[in-house]
Design a protein that fits this description.
The chain has about 300 residues and is an all-alpha fold. The protein has twelve helices and no strands. The longest helix has about 35 residues.
């Protein structure tokens, strides 16, 4: 006769398989991680707004006698081919790079919000026309579409902002359209319609607050991506003109000396990675917070 397995046997096996490393981080670890993330974001914001506090030197000061100095005590990030301090240029380059990323994200979110609201709340023909436009823009790779827009508008900071903003707008429009349709079918919106509220009041008081939250969370994720795209365009020589301390332009200037002066490309590249990681982690935290609130509500 075969033995009948105990009902709590799977639970015992699951407890035996658990290891300390597989457990989810506790509230204290999560809170510490959040504070570290916010501290990194504060340092990046300080470098973007007040770079002179972190690096009081002149990012454009040339000293040929100090060219190609390796990282050391006097020059933490070394010097470039003109003797300029790479640390000072990286810190002062946070302002242009963050400005381009933030401006492009604001432009993309604004255009995406307009398209998303028109397609999500408009009539069927307007939804069909807007959706086909968004599909056509999404069919192009983002950088390819940005290069096409820069070819039409011209290089420079303004051209990069417009190109990156327009390239990211279709993704925001698709997300907001889906959120608007989801919220419009919710119970509290149906109750507002039954109470006789005007369509404008329903959109402003009920639809927009529920639909814009996920859009803002994704926009935080998109900020890091916009900075990476703008740096890529700057690397191609389509962004801020030299000798401006912009991270993509610094990568372009250092590529010739990558084997002999690696610090000219490594440290601007690390700055781009740091901004992308911080923005991505903040966006994920915000998305998880909004998802938790929705589940709790």
């Amino acid at each position: 006769m075969s033995a009948v397995p105990s009902l709590d046997a799977p639970d015992r096996r699951a407890r035996r398989r658990r290891t300390p490393g597989s457990q989810a981080p506790g509230p204290l670890a999560s809170r510490i991680g959040l504070w570290v993330l916010l501290a990194c974001a504060a340092v990046l914001a300080l470098a973007g707004l007040f770079p002179g506090l972190l690096a009081p030197g002149d990012p454009l000061a040339v000293d040929p006698a100090q060219a190609f100095q390796a990282p050391g005590w006097s020059h933490p990030f070394g010097t470039d081919e003109s003797g300029r301090n790479v640390f000072t240029r990286v810190v002062h380059g946070a302002g242009p790079s963050l400005f381009i990323g933030v401006a492009a994200t604001v432009l993309g979110v604004g255009l995406g919000a307009v398209l998303g609201l028109l397609t999500g709340l408009g009539r069927r023909w307007l939804d069909a026309a807007g959706s086909r436009l968004v599909d056509a823009m999404l069919a192009f790779p983002t950088l390819l579409l940005a290069l096409l827009l820069i070819a039409v508008r011209g290089p420079g900071v303004a051209g990069v902002v417009v190109a990156v903003g327009l390239s990211s707008a279709p993704g925001y429009a698709r997300l907001l359209r889906a959120e608007v349709r989801r919220v419009s079918r919710s119970g509290h919106v149906e109750a507002a319609r039954m109470l006789g509220h005007s369509p404008l009041r329903i959109v402003v008081r009920h639809v927009l607050p529920g639909a814009l939250g996920p859009l803002l969370a994704v926009a935080t994720l998109g900020l890091g991506q916009a900075i990476v795209w703008s740096s890529a365009l700057g690397y191609l020589g389509l962004g801020a003109p030299p000798p401006a301390p912009e991270w993509g332009a610094m990568l372009n200037a250092g590529r010739t000396y990558v084997t002999s002066a690696w610090w000219m490309t490594v440290f601007p590249g690390l700055a781009i990675v740091a901004v992308g990681v911080v923005a991505t982690l903040l966006g994920r935290r915000l998305s998880a917070h909004l998802a938790g609130r929705s589940a709790g509500g």
